[in-house]
Amino acid sequence: MDVYALITPANLIAALLALAPFLAVAFFPQQASGRTRALPLWAQLASPAALCLPYLLVACAGGVFRWGWLALYALLPVAVASLLWQAGRADSNQHGNWRDFVVLAVLGLAVDLRWFEGAWPAHLAIFNKVLLLDAGIYGFIALRQLSGIGFDLRLRPRDTAIGLRELAWYTPIALVLGLSLGFLHLHAVWPGVAPIAGAWIFTFLFIAVPEELFFRGWLQNLLERRVGRTAALIVTAILFGLAHFNKRAAQFNWRYVLLAAVAGIFYGRAWCSERRVGASAITHASVDAIWSLWLR
Questions:
Q1: Are residues 58 and 136 in the same domain?
Q2: Domain end among 114, 143, 172
Q3: What residues have CB less than 8 Å from 69, skipping those under 6 apart?
Q4: E strand or H helix that includes residue 121
Q5: CB 11 within 8 A of CB 61
Q6: Can you point out the beta strands (E) in the chain?
């Protein structure tokens, strides 16, 4: 794959448009939510249709544009926003409404089963994940105003301490379990400081934060209100593990599912400590970076 061939004006503009809602809410949560709520209701519900613009740019430049995909990326975010606005109206005490779980199921399955990745040119399907994440962020945070999510990437020393604490607890368990199952394979290499830092930052922003926001900030958060803290932690960890069933294998990858489910316990513990997505994302990114660099 020629990475430089993917760096085109259309793709760069689309990336900026796709990342703007994610970064705005992550670093300026109060301002972003306040500006959304200042809009008329019709504009609040209709504005997510703008998430189709990155698809329009990338698909036209890549020669794969289809009207059906454009309609999907315009209408699905509006449907998510409408459902979560209704959930907020029907569930003012925020115990969790059926609409919340329908939205989570659709967004989660669409990403995990790669329903919409065929819409994109080769090697650019990451746009799909970011746009669906944007739809969820807008719906759950700006419209639903779900409490206790902890999506604030202005990291504090305490976030790092919690994240590394859970990494320290999980690492020996993962090593014993992963090596005994033949899932982990030790590689004694030193790629250098820059590749290590680059791998960690990329993993943190584009893998750990989106998955931790979905599984801990939204799913575990909502389940706690229904089944309690411990049960929510366990159920979310199991679902997180199952979400990896089709990773790096043509069939059900039970070893990956098991290791991911155990990891989910420690990611969930990190988030639970102070309800901060940043803390669990530090644990998650560190685990993934160590695995990809030295244990894959």
A1: yes
A2: 143
A3: 55, 59, 116, 119
A4: none
A5: yes
A6: none
Contact 163, 239 (CB under 8 A): no
Does position 4 have pLDDT exceeding 80, yes or no? Answer: no
CB burial string 152-164: b at 16+ within 10 A, e below: bbeeeeebeebbe
First-to-last C-alpha distance (Å) of the chain:
21
The string of pLDDT tens digits covering residues 106-162 is 999 999 999 999 999 999 999 999 999 999 999 999 999 999 999 999 999 999 999
Which residues form the domain of 182?
Answer: 157-295
- The dihedrals phi and psi of 251, each to the nearest 5 degrees, come to -120, -170
Joined together, the tokens standing for residue 145 give 């105003």
What the block records as the tokens of 76 is: 């699905």
Give yes or no for a contact between 258 and 234, defined as CB atoms under 8 angstroms apart: no
> Tens digit of pLDDT for each residue in 38-63?
999 999 999 999 999 999 999 999 99
Where among 100, 120, 143 does a domain terminate? 143
Buried b (16+ CB within 10 A) or exposed e, 122-135: eebeebbbbbbbbb
Cα dist. 79→48, 53, 84, 102, 108 in Å? 9, 17, 9, 11, 15
Claim to verify: residue 9 and residue 120 sit in the same structural domain: yes
Q: Name, in order, each residue with C-beta under 8 angstroms of 280's C-beta and a sequence gap of 6 or more.
A: 163, 166, 208, 212, 216, 267, 268, 270, 271
Examine the domain organization and report whether 121 and 171 are in the same domain. Answer: no
Judge contact between 151 and 141, C-beta under 8 A.
yes
Q: Position of tokens 């790092």?
A: 160
Number of domains, the chain: 2
- The model's pLDDT over 61-70, given as tens digits with 9 standing for 90+, comes to 999 999 999 9
Give the burial class of 258: count Cβ atoms within 10 A of its Cβ; 0-12 exposed, 13-18 middle, 19 or more buried.
middle
Q: Does the residue 148 lie in any domain?
A: no
